[in-house]
Amino acid sequence: MTNKRYFLMAIFFTLFSTALAGGAGTSPRLGAWITVFTPENVFYSRENADKLVRTCKEAGIDHIYLQLYRAGEAFYDSAITVASPFEKIKKSFGGDPVKYIIDAAKKNGIEVHAWLNLLSVAQNDKADVLLKIGPAALTLDQNEKKSWSKEKEAVDKRFVREDQLFLEPGNPQVRTYLTSIVGEILDKYPSIAGVHLDYIRYPKAVPFSPGSRFDAYSLSYGYTFQNMLNFKKDNGATPKEMEKTRDNFQKWDDWRRRQVTELARMISGNVRAREGKYRISAAVMPSAELAYSVNFQDWPDWLRKGYIDHVVTMNYTENPELAGINARSSLSQSSREKVYIGLGAYLLKSLPGVLKEEIETVKKASPGGIVIFSYDEVAKDAELRQTLRALSNGPKMENRNDHSRGT
């Protein structure tokens, strides 16, 4: 009888431990993205900054991604790149709004993560990074065209491009420049919780190409002169010169993936070398398969290697069923506490019932966190704040190998 009792206790303990590991009985962490162009104008007055902190606390949001680098310009006190946007908000705020928000949020148990748009410079063809490095800083498609142009081109009749200029991750100067931007933010704001890497990928066009085997039918990027030379050094021919075999296509695709991963590795090395235990996260495509083959963004590998601590998938859809499918697929790529699911509330302004259904659907998948894009919808929608608040009750999923600064 005693042996049977011990046997049953062992089974119970195993099942209980498995449930905890999978996130059963825990609530996801809650977050929100705050854009530099937010109508809530959080950067422009103490009143709006205080409202941000108050609203997040009311909704149970425990971490925010505050956009500090966009279109190649700084919305923080930068000596590296153009900081005119920061000077504008500093004048309106009567001081440094970034430091104020970090300090105010911290006092209320809310982490602030610096959100950076890395490889996108939007439509800023005069961005500081372009002036310093030159045209070689930009990625090109297989026809040697940039990812965006002011005037419509023949290619735009066949494909839908992303309408923004992308930098080339294969350019070592680009990687060094962006890594220095991340480092500067941590130097300026050492009490920040972490950095959030966005646009750390190659651009895509619609219809998209799942690998270079299909480049004849879509647009694919990375075909710069410098990349061609570097690839040829390792492989004896450029992607355009080599024989069209599956093995060669794979070599070229893998090479481009390594360039994006190298940027993640360099930034990670810079951050990890610091005394503060800063958390590194990335906003990523929700389908790991498409991220891998179309954008050359191997985010599951970054998690495995510890380059980043968690991802936030941009699971933006008006279809709750698809939101659930994407969430479950993303969560299969890593331990659940390392995968947060981002929901596009901005798409669902007139469909509050759909947003609530998506939140409930994603919650059942037990992610490490749920992040709302964006704070503006949280600030406007009292019902959304109540839904999030109810969701935030209960113990949070543990962050293993946590590199975040304590609040």
Task: Give a verbal description of the structure.
The protein has 407 residues and is an alpha/beta fold. The protein has a single domain (29-392), classed as TIM Barrel, CATH 3.20.20. 42% of the residues lie in helices and 13% in strands. The protein has 14 helices and nine strands. The protein has an eight-stranded parallel β-barrel with strand order 1-2-4-5-6-7-8-9, surrounded by four helices. Strand 7, helix 11 (320-331) and strand 8 form a beta-alpha-beta unit. Helix 2 (46-59) packs across helix 14. The longest helix is centred in the middle third of the chain and has 27 residues, at 246-272. Mean pLDDT is 92; it is low at 6-23 and 403-407.
